[in-house]
């Protein structure tokens, strides 16, 4: 139980850091606007797997374990099965998540967006996992989150 609470707090801290810092980008607010204007993979559009924006906070469980994803612009943070991974959303003919985990884990490093209706996001990972995530109803982070990153977790 304590490990789950620590993992949830770490996930919340990373999500907060991503939302507040834009993954440490020095590009400012114009970076997200430029990405959307150029047709970024997070842009809303037609009826395919990447049609609804994947930007925001997503959560779910796979094999009974929490999976949390936060996407801001083209930057992404994933906490799953005790692993913290960061990277980006890339358009490789269809929206894909390309991540690198801080501990070297490769279970969720390349993921294809199978479907996305704006409320439910299904991601198939090259290593075999398949996550079905639900978008945060409020679109905002919960209150009372830690203000700093946990010790030992590298920032993107």
Structure description:
With 156 residues, this protein is α+β, with helices and mostly antiparallel strands. The chain contains 2 helices and 8 strands, in the order ααββββββββ. The protein has helices spanning 2-21, 30-37; strands at residues 56-62, 65-72, 75-80, 83-91, 95-101, 110-116, 120-125, 130-135. Strands 1-2-3-4-5-6-7-8 form an 8-stranded antiparallel β-barrel. It is globular and about 35 Å long. Mean pLDDT is 73; it is low at 1-12 and 15-48.
How much is the radius of gyration in Å? 15 Å
Q: Quick one: overall form?
A: globular
**Number of helices, counting only DSSP H or I runs of 4 residues or more:** 2
Structural class: alpha+beta
End-to-end separation in angstroms reads: 28 Å
Major sheet: 8 strands, antiparallel, barrel
Roughly how much helix do the residues carry, as a percent range?
10-25%
As a percent range, the share of strand residues is: 35-45%
DSSP, total strands? 8
What labels would you give this structure?
single chain, 156 residues, alpha+beta, 8-stranded antiparallel barrel, 18% helix
List the helices and strands and how they pair.
Blueprint: H1 2-21, H2 30-37, E1 56-62, E2 65-72, E3 75-80, E4 83-91, E5 95-101, E6 110-116, E7 120-125, E8 130-135
Antiparallel strand pairs: 1-2, 1-8, 2-3, 3-4, 4-5, 5-6, 6-7, 7-8
